[in-house]
């Protein structure tokens, strides 16, 4: 058998050397029986290279494997070597044995690989010196993937790596070493072929992951991605990076639709693009060559071309011969030279050209250079190209030939939905003044974003212009901010919408907290604030005219009065007992010596009252007992009066204080007012998580209150404060608090703000657009827009109150507060005047008895002296002076009393006129005083007339009559004053004076002409005083 084989090989060698025109050499290939497409590609590649040069032909010998069995593989390899093959291609990486590499290394037969077998150690590499691998080195491929993800165009900081269990992770070794494997770095998840892929995506969605790096075989890629659609992982804000180099043949383009907007990218080895002939292509050639569409077929093709070009070069040299060896016997000497020749072949020398770009074999037989397409596999559009030297380069910057340009032109018909203008769905909650429904005027209906208004609405509109995006507002159904429920391990409100990918932005009066930052990201704050206390402002007490009596109650005032009376009586008794309190003896009318004691009830009460009022008294005691008693009374009076003044000042001040609580400390230390905050909100978290003693006490009190002190929203808390009328206080953010205080005069802020907080915009974790939004907020702040929004929505003056407008308190007391003092003064003056009149009448009675005259005469004499207020010295007997007077006196009175009635009237009138103060002033000062009185009266009536308060103001005769009635009597009254003892002149002037005063009647009274000019005759005929006539005239 061996002799027969040797004879055949010798014959083949002789025949090959004998024929100089065609050199036919055998090449072997090993495939699995499931790799029929590779076998077809191998045949096609051999066919194409055989057409390059007619002097060298390759004859392919193919063997197939059914199972990965090293013994079977060894037999097939030895059979190929025994058949005189000049090279062996394969098998693929499905085999775990390196028996082929070892056999080729011992026999000198070149071995070519076209995929990624298991990595070998350096020692094992000594047995693979005859092996050439045209597949890209996994180390370089791993570097390329890292360069792409770490570039500015991608900038993946945190993501989940998902791979199929049978995948070789060598090409991802740099990725695994790039980020830490923890919650905020890289998460790894594995799945197996045939699993329920929905479980995988549910886990990823629950983890709020938006960035997924997927390494999946192309034959199951569509099924895996299709399972993610139900978990909203293919939305506009999700990112998917596919590392399999055959993604383009997986059929993923079937997902092309407006709903599939995930930002997807994949990589592949960039194909060689031949230049067109004369810059023209056959536009009628629509045939697509799909024999080499997968990477394995392309690399197999490149390995055949590489080997053929090296063989063609080496076969033309001397010393080349066909192999004549077998396993364990002989070594083919041209084999190593053929391997070195393959390492020296450049892409430009290869004919036909390689299917992949930049194919070059290094000294170790590995391919360390290639170009990668970073493309969108849905529309097959290249966006970037990775190169070992230049890293990631934008495809737009690379000039393409006309063939690729034509291909690109065909692809322009497809729209890249992932690159359309970004449109964010914004989750928010209804709550003034940040976000509320806009009121629709009658006949107007708003749609879309026009339905809303508020602080965040204006902010988003400006932010959208700065950051170039579109948006749709979507209020969350539960109208909550977002709090964590430990029992269900779930979030609610806005935070939940972001976690579930139902929204991309969350904004309202949303406070940045550490708990929320663990599940979402926040932009830079757009507002700083604190926490304060919202309370009900009690209305000020009603003004009390007798409020000055409030410092002491009725019982105290009663005891003070009793003490004053008792002290006055004690002073009388003590003063009468003390000999030093009696005056020196004096003679009376009967020439008897008598002593007088000044300490009687009137004087002692005056002393007691003066001491109480801090006014002092000119009556001072002389004896020791009296002084001691007076000193103790002064001490008592001083304490009582000063205490009263202090209490009065405190009472006036306290009436202006609307609330006894001034801080959180006061609120915690009292038990009358309950207080609370929004359940699950940032303010409640501030108190529940605080280590401060006072905050912990406040939180424990809020938990203990019955009924529940927590509310669902700020609006509910504000309403509860107003309804409680001072029995409930609400803890809330200062911005919202000030907004409600400015619009409700019944509310007030208590104390200073504490617990600094910030409002920010929430976005899903690891969202790339977060930094863009932060920059936009900073720009709006620099432009003053944030300040403008705050003044517009939080600092307006629209206010309302259930108790009416709030009075302006300037610190001054009005008449309603001190009116009682004037009442006391008036009452005191009236009482004093009444007592004075009583004493005056008593004095007149005593004079009448003493002087033996009638009381009427004594009264007249005393009244006449009383009205002479310019006289300060009173004679002992006033009636005598009156009797001696030349103009008046009791004698004249007696004479007048004996006259007839008319004469007595004139004489009495003249007597009064010459003795009234006006007459005396007229005689003394020339009547100037009365003239001034008349002029002032005229001015008053003139002003009343011009202002319309006098009837008949449109008739000038009324004004003339009023002037005559004011000035006329003055003139004739002055004349009567200077008439002396002439009774005729006096009576005449006085009569004219009284007659002119009658003009007041005509100037003030209404006539029928003024009441009803059209019915004056009828009115007078029926009688001016008839109510029927008056009603009839009005009709």
From TrEMBL:
Residues 423-796 form the Ionotropic glutamate receptor C-terminal domain. It holds the Pfam family ANF_receptor. Residues 433-500 form the Ionotropic glutamate receptor L-glutamate and glycine-binding domain. GO terms for biological process: neuromuscular synaptic transmission; synaptic transmission, glutamatergic. GO terms for molecular function: glutamate-gated calcium ion channel activity. Keywords: Cell membrane, Glycoprotein, Ion channel, Ion transport, Ligand-gated ion channel, Membrane, Postsynaptic cell membrane, Receptor, Signal, Synapse, Transmembrane, Transmembrane helix, Transport. It is found in: Postsynaptic cell membrane. GO terms for cellular component: ionotropic glutamate receptor complex; muscle cell postsynaptic specialization; postsynaptic membrane. The keyword Transmembrane helix applies. The chain crosses the membrane at residues 556-574, 631-652, 818-841, 928-947, 959-978, 984-1002. It is a multi-pass membrane protein. Residues 1-18 form the signal peptide. Belongs to the glutamate-gated ion channel (TC 1.A.10.1) family. This is Ionotropic glutamate receptor C-terminal domain-containing protein. It comes from Drosophila ananassae (Fruit fly).
